[in-house]
Amino acid sequence: MQDVEAQVTMRDCWLNMPQSEYQYLTLVERSEMLRHYEEQDTAVVENRLSEQSRIDTLTTNYCRVILNKRTTLEMKLFAKDDGSQNICVVKTFSLPQLNSIVAIYNTDWKKQTSVFDESFSIEDFIDGENVVSEEDLEKLKMAYFPYLFNACLALEKDIITITPVVSYKEYLNDDISNLVKELIKEL
């Protein structure tokens, strides 16, 4: 019989997260945030940038942390077919548009190859049932270039939702807005 590797909790992931994932929170600060959260106290600490960071949500397989006013961190444990787990990490910045960086790690924090290592293009978000003219496609490309996206992890399910973010809101007239409503989908 094959040994199944011990299941890791999000608490373990939070404490074992390498400093490189968010270098402005030390292990001591992450531990303090966790202690406050577990005591149902305000889990706020001052990070190395003199900004406040806090744990917003922590379950056995999900964590959401407000790193500062402009940055959130989400982590989710995803079970693999072989019984092991991967950690999906989503860092979302709002400067001023939302943009997320997604990475997948094993539970030893070794980066795994994933679809998120590649850039998305606007074509990835066009609903396959729609036929898009070259002219409309060019309009969408202009509105969404550079290609930014917002990623969100689901608390209850093993799902990550990817939504394209309009880069230039001033380019978004009624014509483009209608195209977006018709053609763009979440992944």
Characterization of the model:
The chain starts with 9 loop residues before the first helix and ends with a helix. The strands form two sheets. A seven-stranded antiparallel β-sheet has the order 1-2-3-4-5-6-7, with helices on one face. A two-stranded antiparallel ribbon has the order 8-9. The longest helix has 12 residues, at 27-38. Helix 1 (10-16) runs antiparallel to helix 2 (27-38). It is globular and about 55 Å long. It has 187 residues and is of the alpha+beta class. Strand 6 and strand 7 form a beta hairpin. The protein is 21% helix and 32% strand. The chain folds into two domains: 1-114, no CATH class; 119-187, no CATH class.
Report a brief summary of the structure.
The protein is α+β, with helices and mostly antiparallel strands and 187 residues long. The protein is built from four helices and nine strands, in the order H-H-E-E-E-E-E-E-E-H-E-E-H. It has helices at residues 10-16, 27-38, 134-144, 174-183, and strands spanning 44-46, 52-58, 62-68, 71-79, 85-94, 98-106, 111-112, 148-153, 160-165.
Task: Give the strand tally.
Answer: 9
Strand proportion, as a percent range, falls in 25-35%
Overall mean pLDDT: 81
What structural category arises from helix and sheet content?
alpha+beta
Distance between the termini: 38 Å
The number of domains: 2
Strand order of the largest sheet: 1-2-3-4-5-6-7
Listing every helix as H and every strand as E from the N terminus to the C terminus, the arrangement reads HHEEEEEEEHEEH
Radius of gyration: 19 Å
Characterize the biggest β-sheet: 7 strands, antiparallel
* Basic shape: globular
Helix count from the secondary structure assignment: 4
Helix content: 10-25%
